[in-house]
Amino acid sequence: MTLIWAILVVALSVYALYELLNIHKRQRDPPGSTRLPILGHLHLLGKNPHKDLQKLAKKHGPIMYVQLGLVPTIVASSIDAAEKVLKTYDHIFANRPHHEASQHLAYGQKNLVFAKYDVYWRNIRKLCTVHLLSNQKIHSFQSMRKQQVELLIQSLKKEARDRVVANLSTNITSLNVNMTCLMVFGKKYMDEDLDKRGFKAIVQDVVHLSATPNLGDFFPFLGAIDLQGITRKLKDLSKVFDEFLEKIIDEHVNPHEHKQNKDFVDTMMDIMQSGEAKFQFDRRHIKAILFVSAMDTTASSTEWILTKLLRHPQVMKKLQKELQQVVGLDRMVEESDLENLNYLDMVVKEGLRLHPVAPLFYHESMEDCVVDGFHVQKGSRIIINCYAIHRDPNVWPEPEKFLPERFVGSSVDFRGRDFQLLPFGSGRRSCPGMQLAVTIVRLVVAQLVHCFEWELPNGIQPCDLDIDEKFGIVTCREKPLLAIPTYRLKK
Ligand code: HEM
Asked: Which positions bind heme (predicted)?
């Protein structure tokens, strides 16, 4: 009898050990639809992939497998899935996938956004957060922002006097381009002749080309062949940009005037000369970091929030009431007012929830691992679909509705702790420009709503104002936002 028990125990132990060692066999691939040969699931994604992936996730679950061409991809579409990717396994998923465009535009993925997760990334992330995007540095540009916003208000006042339709999209983009150039380069480049087209047009070309689906991103072996001619165009553009950045750096080597406020180039030149960076930090790195990719995010977020306010006049009125109480009609909004504008804070949160300008963000797995029992192979692309999370009815009641009041008494914030609201991501690769972006978005929305009443042109009813999206590196409005301003301050 004892012998039988002994054999049984040994057999069970061997089986348990076998199961333990064979753990890999028990792991399943995440669920997904049937894939086509070669294309995988690419045919299921249209011009708004965040919405297509949201629909697929409703069918297959919050951790789902799609194969984009030859690239195995895991899509995370719920709070829990996002927390797993961005917190529990952040150390494994913090890499960025290969991005064909950034190879040519960002000096071989040397820009912080596209850099691989390694010592180089750690170094430049630290340089950027400590020296360029710190609260102190952001604060040092406060008077510049005030001046630029005032210029916009003056120009809109003229349009208000003439009762003409204002193009809010171009006005907001120009304001952001100007503010970014002043902060980064120390002067405006809007009207500068850059390749006979102008700075703004070149930046828009870069954004457009970077967002154009590139076969090389889905079929890596096609990257070198460049069937679509995208790489050739990107190389031409990056040459123009490179000459422009070289000229700016030269101007900063021997500045004509003594500057009180150091722009980003000055700061990086100081870092280069001091040897503070823990690696060979040279002009190439300065240029890669300077590569201006951030300004459209802030402009588009502002545009979306104004769109929502124009579609919901009662929310606009409530915000104007708050501004009237806190600021009064005798003056414009100051940055110091922002902390007292609670309803504005809720309006901004709700706008970023419904229209995150980066609805999908992309990571890459650096190791084989298991998430919720699903096997994720090394080198898989990981997509976090924050659009789907922000509209999950299990988390947000009536998720499609613009209801800033849903944040009353709620501590939910977008700083990366709350996985139901992730417009800026969370974890190692989260947005280091969040504080700057939020300051600008709040200031510009508050100023435009405080200084003007807004009316839609051609008798368009608020509920008929279009909300069509154009997906890209930044998901913006498809059509420009047009409205007629009436000045409402006393002076
Ligand atoms: C990364 C959103 C403005 C610089 C990101 C990510 C998101 C995001 C979702 C990716 C997170 C991830 O992959 O996990 C936004 C939004 C903005 C904004 C919604 C405006 C409303 C800015 C600004 C700057 C900036 C103003 C800089 C001046 C960056 C950089 C990264 C990044 C450098 C890459 C960080 C890394 O990979 O380590 N942003 N961003 N962003 N953002 Fe922003």
From this structure: 431
* Nearest ligand 1 atom, CA 301: 21
Residue nearest to atom 21 of ligand 1 (CA): 298
**Can you give the pLDDT at residue 6?**
64
How large is the ipTM? Answer: 0.99
Question: Per the annotation, does 476 bind a ligand?
Answer: no
> Nearest to residue 101, comparing CAs of 219, 221, 233?
233
Q: Which residue among 297, 360, 441 has the greatest number of ligand 1 atoms within 8 angstroms of its CB, and so is best to mutate?
A: 297
Specify the residue with its C-alpha closest to ligand 1, atom 5: 431
C-alpha to C-alpha distance for 11 and 15, rounded to whole angstroms: 6
Identify the pLDDT of residue 285. Answer: 79
Q: At how many degrees (to 10) do helices 313-326 and 342-354 cross?
A: 150
pLDDT per position as a tens digit, 234-285: 888 888 888 888 888 888 887 666 677 888 989 988 888 887 777 777 888 7
| SS (HEC) of 429-477 | CCCCCHHHHHHHHHHHHHHHHHHEEEECHHHCCHHHCCCCEECCCCCEE
Task: Tell which atom from ligand 1 comes closest to the C-alpha of 426.
Answer: 14
Round to whole Å and give the CA distance between 316 and 455. 11
Ligand 1 atom 34, closest CA: 113
Amino acid, single-letter form, for residue 474:
V
Instruction: Count CB neighbours of 285 within 10 A.
Output: 22
The answer to whether 344 and 325 are in contact (CB under 8 A) is no
Whole-number Å distance, alpha carbon 124 to ligand 1 midpoint, is 14
Average pLDDT score over residue span 442-452? 98
Helix, strand, or coil (residue 259): coil
- Two tokens at 86? 């961005």
Dihedrals φ, ψ of 95, to 5°?
A: -80, 160
Q: Is the CB of 359 under 6 A from ligand 1?
A: no
What's the gap in Å between 337 CA and the centre of ligand 1? 25
List the end-to-end C-alpha distance of the chain, in Å, as a whole number: 100
**Under DSSP, is residue 47 helix (H, G, I), strand (E, B) or coil?**
coil
- pTM equals 0.91
- The residue count for the chain: 491
- Report residue 480 CA to chain centroid gap: 20
Question: Which stretches of 335-380 are assigned E, i.e. beta strand?
Answer: 360-364, 369-371, 374-376
Place 29 in a pLDDT band, splitting at 50, 70 and 90.
confident
Among residues of the chain, what percentage have pLDDT more than 90? 64
- Pairwise CA distance, residues 226 & 215, whole Å: 8
Secondary structure element (H or E) that encloses residue 309, with its range: helix 295-311
The CA 432 to ligand 1 mean position distance, Å, reads 6
pLDDT band at residue 217, thresholds of 50, 70 and 90? Answer: confident
Q: Which atom of ligand 1 is nearest to the CA of 436?
A: 26
* Residue 145 identity (one-letter amino acid): R
